[in-house]
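During the reporting period, we have paired protein sequences with backbone structure tokens. One record among many follows, to show the layout:
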Amino acid sequence: MDSIEISKISIAEVESLKTISIQTFTETFSEYNTKNDMQKYISTNLSSEKLLKELNSNESAFYVLNLNTEIIGYLKVNTGMSQTEIQNNTSLEIERIYVKQAFHGKNFGQRLLQKAIDIAKKKGCHYIWLAVWEKNLKAISFYTKHGFMAFDKHIFQLGDDAQLDIMMKLELK
């Protein structure tokens, strides 16, 4: 029987976080973007130094999804001033939610999403929000299926490419 566990990642696990971050980001976006833009983003946003800074924030948290002993996905949530845009105490941002491509379609993304919902409810948040690339139709469909609704747009800088993200939110009851 498979063992599935979601656990908060510690500072000591930064290299494992870096590995899963780079692998899943590359799997998700490399076929749609230039190698140069991908490398610029990865070196700036997924370096050990940047991840350590984020891990040290009291208003950000990373969770890894383990299947048996393998990390197959992760989640990054932000509250308060760590949120990339809507910086208030009534919302929680899902900044990153990724699962290795080999494990897509097996409800692992849904488990990570539910973890974010549970965290938000425990913190007394009124809603969860996230931003998703307008061309990532699979992700948009996933979030829509789980009750998220588009409410705005913003620019996401991937290397030298300014891309349009759809901002979506889920009201919590």
Summary: The beta strands are 4-8, 60-67, 70-79, 91-99, 127-133, 149-158, 161-171. The first helix runs from residue 14 to 29. The CA atoms of residues 38 and 159 lie 6 Å apart.
